[in-house]
């Protein structure tokens, strides 16, 4: 077609993508209404800067994470930044979790089904917490998205998780807020609901605008337009802007106002998980962006000093700010020591490969949104991006959720989930035994290794006064000496009480902790010979003590008869 402007992307065997059919536009061409232009070179510069901002924020704030809750971090407790710290983020979950989403998009494209996203997240092997952990457990149990993040199945719907991980969604969607919103509907629903999703869409919307805007107020406004105006999260954003204008030189006054409303007012704690709530941590992102006044160090430090999740929040704030600046304009102290070849933990990406996959997906996003890729008179590739009005998701309230979708994985889909759920793993670990009243705290389930032992199952009590119980019916052989053999352990920072019962009668009560367990492990044999010839119900209790790291470690559970 003569004068064609349609771009066709063709995959090469090396994984790189070639652009054919690219229109060449003279330098004197009149500006085109309804589009914005961004050279691919500048896109990569700003996109890389966004990743460096994330990395710098989390690396700088990591030593302070959750050490100051509902309190401002004293200035003298802020770590000193040194250029080598930039490489401390390669093993940070605040960075590598979102790369799981990138990998799904890389393999299946921007139209990857939400169920495939759920399968890939279910198969992730890194430790998780909060909404991420609850969502992944649901997925491994067969609860498919969007139900995996629904409050009926997930008690942490308003947690910070997707907000932490949403940076990727804007970094691959330059000037395309609806792409960032749609990605939130796909990946945010794996673990979050309502405000928990909106926080991520807000962050993604800010990144999308950061490719074209340096004014922090316009960037924030662009993010705000991506979420439902009636949500508490949107209310928080508006409050932060108002409080900033009222106290433009006193960020600690604004911190106090945010604390009073979004931490102390029960109306804004509904469906909240305390300091993990997305709204208060989102306020701390904005604290850095507003009062940082465009200065990288000031932005990170103020967001960090606000406390709570004080590495994730400066990571989001710095990521957006750095994207407005571009990598070529960043201070050398954030770039000169960066290891470009080291891979991020649990991923296939180092920095160059990360840049390439983001560019690949951005190309897809631009074309999918109705844009195109041209060459200018100098032969440089340029994204021609349609200007679009954001279309926020529907308003949902985590404390008054809508109906579930009754979404379950099929048998064929479950066969693709190679990482077992805690309940499925327990059947494999201890055939004949059942598990009940097991809490969701910590990383329960089967672990390949823990404290030097292989194949360890971890449990946790559901409440401080209620045990997790392992049980089974047992016919104790007559005429033989029978014993229950256990090897149990404890978390390095905690202890618990092992109680063994038969038909409700206590046979053993023993602490499992540093004083009783050599090298973290305790071997116990409980004589069952007095029960010979009887059918009994054995119960093994993971009984909490002081509610500090009460995880029970089970390495061996065996019935031995001679």
Q: In brief, what are we looking at here?
A:
This protein has 562 residues and is α+β, with helices and mostly antiparallel strands.
The total count of helices amounts to 17
Q: State the low-pLDDT regions, or none.
A: 1-21
Give the CATH topology of the largest domain: ADP-ribosylglycohydrolase fold
Question: Roughly how much helix do the residues carry, as a percent range?
Answer: 25-40%
Please tell me the overall pLDDT. 93
CATH superfamily of the largest domain: ADP-ribosylation/Crystallin J1
Describe it for me?
The protein folds into 2 domains: 370 residues, ADP-ribosylation/Crystallin J1 (ADP-ribosylglycohydrolase fold, Orthogonal Bundle); 142 residues, Galactose-binding domain-like (Jelly Rolls). Helices cover 36% and strands 18% of the residues. It is elongated, with a radius of gyration of 26 Å.
Q: What structural keywords apply?
A:
562 residues, 5-stranded antiparallel beta sheet, disordered N terminus, ADP-ribosylglycohydrolase fold, 17 helices, 2 domains, alpha+beta, Jelly Rolls
Helices, strands, pairings?
Blueprint: E1 8-11, E2 17-20, E3 23-25, E4 35-39, H1 40-61, H2 93-108, H3 114-122, H4 130-141, H5 161-165, H6 167-171, H7 177-187, H8 195-210, H9 216-224, H10 232-246, H11 251-262, H12 278-291, H13 296-305, H14 312-325, H15 351-368, E5 372-376, E6 381-386, H16 411-416, H17 422-429, E7 434-436, E8 445-450, E9 453-459, E10 468-475, E11 482-490, E12 496-502, E13 505-512, E14 521-527, E15 535-543, E16 552-561
Parallel strand pairs: 3-5
Antiparallel strand pairs: 1-2, 4-6, 5-6, 7-10, 8-9, 9-16, 10-15, 11-14, 11-16, 12-13, 12-15
